[in-house]
Amino acid sequence: MKLLFIPIILSFITIATADTIAVLDTDGDVLKPGIEYYIVPGITDVAGGLTLASRNGSCPLSVAQAPRGGGDGFPVIFTPANPNAKTVNIGEDTNIAFSAVTICIQLTVWRLTGPDEVSKWFYVSTGGVTGNPGKNTLSNWFKIEQYMGVYKLVFCPGVCDVCRPVCGDLTIDVVGDQRWLALSRGSERAFPFMFKKA
């Protein structure tokens, strides 16, 4: 009877450790909180990395994709919901903030805003806050998931047990010559990303 009990315990240990998979950067190193990374296209070169831009000529700034030849964009810093996390893990809630100085007084922490009155898209903007996971900060939490051999960004926060947020993959909404980071409405595919040390 004791021999049957050991494999059962080992299977629980394997399941518990298999759930935590660290995100890797382009060098194959684990992503770490507080370190600067560029978010760059994963399998396409139609444009550059993620940056800041104004959608309506005013603040707060929105998350955009730099034009082709526009470089890696601005670096970001990840802050997981778990303050003791040593790595940024697949499928775990994290704040994302640009490590950049802007003319706007708002913080550069990402948050989901919308829907836009005209396009009905939910866009990723700035002006969020870091930490304090819960219903008051629901729009500030994002996840990284594996996708097409690289990664995708997802909005589906799990920091509030009673909340029912809109969920979906993040994609690029092309408006004229601008490329905005937005929540997929279901028919758009997730945009593949990689993370490159700054």
Entry keywords:
198 residues; mainly beta; Trefoil (Acidic Fibroblast Growth Factor, subunit A); four-stranded antiparallel beta sheet; 1 helix; 12 strands; 9% helix; signal; Kunitz_inhibitor_STI-like_sf; Miraculin-like
Could you explain how this protein is built, in words?
This protein has 198 residues and is mainly beta. It has one domain (23-197): Trefoil (Acidic Fibroblast Growth Factor, subunit A) (Trefoil), CATH 2.80.10.50. It contains one helix and twelve strands, in the order H-E-E-E-E-E-E-E-E-E-E-E-E. The protein has one helix at 2-18, and strands at 36-41, 50-53, 62-65, 76-80, 94-98, 109-113, 123-128, 143-147, 150-155, 168-175, 178-183, 193-197. The strands form four sheets. The chain has a four-stranded antiparallel beta sheet, with no helix packed on it. It has a four-stranded antiparallel beta sheet with strand order 8-9-10-11, with no helix packed on it. A two-stranded antiparallel ribbon has the order 2-3. The longest helix has 17 residues, at 2-18. The protein is globular and about 40 Å long. The model is unreliable at 1-17 (pLDDT under 50).
